[in-house]
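seq as requested:
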Amino acid sequence: MASNDLENGRAALTPPPVNLGPEESGGDSVASATMVKDPGEELPGLPRLNYKLLDHKKKLFLVGGLLVLEGSILPIVLFYPLWFATNLRHGILFAIITSFFGLVSGLEFAHRSWRLIQKDDFYRPLNGTRWRFDFTHMTLSVGYTVMTGILIGASIPHEPLVRPLAMPLPLFFIEVGLLAIATGFMDAMNLHATCKVSSTPKGAPIPPILLTFIEDVVAVDGGAGKTYRERILNRYKISKHFRALIRGLNWFWGIGSLLVGAGSLAVVWTVPQEIAYGVGWGAPLGFVIIWLAITIPWTHRSLENEKRGWMANLRRKSQQGSEKQPVP
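struct tokens:
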């Protein structure tokens, strides 16, 4: 099955191979794999990602919670009491709200920048250079620049422009959605990358952007480094089940992000401005919660199916090998 997977996956993603060890080579590895009962154990030929979110749950909940607070909850919580229950000039009101934007995300962005430019290339993409950031970093740079420009520009007038001040988050979701849909289409059409995309070299078939985001975030922000980049690209190259999962989630999040971004933007410009502000900053959070609730069991089920299918294929190969052995 591995050879068919390589063909189906258009395996031009060629990171260094994962060393599976001598005990996983030849017929013995196939036979031993058939005895595996725990689907979490390593299987011959199927690279483990060696990264569990639950092992990093404290950092995940802390950083994730602070980002949600900064990027959705805080603007809404500050806006409505200050708008309706105080006599603050609206310019001062939005100066207060805007001052919190980038407090957490900016520090996290600076932290990942520092990791990527260190002399040691542990966090950088495969075959990357010191001053060339990964693709996720460049995507965030564009998004943050646009969002910050809107927040500053719409806050400058004596009477701030409330509707544009509700636009940053929907625009960011539109950016991510378009990227996911574009790379999903390129992957389906077997189009090649016109530039280096994180660890995917120029001229190689471009994978869905979701794979790149996972690779970059876990390697840099999660601290897993280049080993994780090698493993996830090998897993995507070798396993058709893993490719199907990534492709499905890429379309799921891409179309959803585009719809919620465009829909929120349309509502922002059609309802009263006081409602528009809450929609612009609140609707994307609701979307993320719902999509995550669907994604988590989907991913868990798909990975279990992948491992069961891999074990079944190993058993089949083992039986075929036994049948070919000469009878003494």
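The chain has twelve helices and no strands.
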